[in-house]
Amino acid sequence: MRKSKSTQSANHKVLKDPLEENLEKYGIGKELGRGEFGVTYQCFDLKTGEACACKKISKTKLKTEIDIDDIMREVEIVKHLPRHPNLVAFREAFEDNEAVYLVMELCRGVSDEAKDIVRSMLDPNPLTRMSIQEVLKDEWIQNLQLAPNFNLGENVGSRIKQFSLMSKFKKKVLRMFNTMDTNANRYLSFEELRDGLQKIGHSVCEHDVKMLIEAADIDGNGSLSCEEFVIMVVHLKRIRNDEHLTQAFHHFDKNQSGYIEFEELREALLKDDPGPNNEQLIKDIMQDVDKDKDVQISYQEFKAMMLTGMDWKMASRQYSRALINAVGIKMLRQSGQLK
């Protein structure tokens, strides 16, 4: 790590191509806000009258080379940002002996109601922080006229509700894990998973329990951590959603032909674990799933396979084997426990 050497930054040029005379192009207005290194003012292009924002970074605040490098990096980043309606547009940067100046697009402030709800949502205290239900019932959310320049979109409410439901789902999965973890070591052994499944009403053969552990055991230690267990169950819940099934299908369909061909299936599933037994596994999968026997898997065949329990290794999960059998799906069908 480089040492933070002190520097006489007031006499040090920070920018690569400083243009001190550009400061005269602007008239400085009211203060808009303050940060660790500088103050942001409203300013005006004296030639066009356009309102902008000018961030003034005092050189007396830049006490080390690292501080100066950070400012240089910030300037280079904003210079190269593309023009986009959701990004603040950068105009120019210049400096004098006193400060570095960044002139950018002036962003109009949001309403007090919007600030209040965001502030409440970001409250670090869970006892006073707004719940998802309270957010959905908030007057600003309910009455969009309070925020005429902001379109929530028709999917926002449903996304928030999905997030709330998923949080509840994860909590129930955690409770299930704690129930199965009889020795409280934060790992599920083969015996604990087998016995735990039996306790919740699923008598599962030992072969299926082993396959389930091998499929979800990311670190390969022969047991399931709490994280691995939650990831596995959440993943199995998500694959029943058409959006995730479509993403998974496109991952395997490398040539975008609309079908998963034998070699695409083989490459995806055997890349990390080749071998004669697994070669036969790929043939068995193709034989079982390819209903019309055209030696390729359509999306409908893929979907039918996923929803009936034959779950492949997904791109988004680092599972170590090709197959999770129907026991994983059964775990999702516990009425009142995993809904």
From TrEMBL:
Protein kinase domain residues: 26-332
SUPFAM superfamilies: EF-hand, Protein kinase-like (PK-like)
One GO MF term: protein serine/threonine kinase activity
Catalysed conversion reaction: L-threonyl-[protein] + ATP = O-phospho-L-threonyl-[protein] + ADP + H(+); L-seryl-[protein] + ATP = O-phospho-L-seryl-[protein] + ADP + H(+)
Coiled coil (residue ranges): none
EC id: 2.7.11.1
Domain of life (superkingdom): Eukaryota
Entry keyword annotation includes Acetylation: no
Positions with a binding annotation for ATP: K55
Enzyme class, first EC level, given as a word: transferase
Annotated family: Belongs to the protein kinase superfamily. CAMK Ser/Thr protein kinase family. CaMK subfamily.
Protein name, entry field: non-specific serine/threonine protein kinase
Lineage, uppermost ranks: Eukaryota, Viridiplantae, Streptophyta, Embryophyta, Tracheophyta
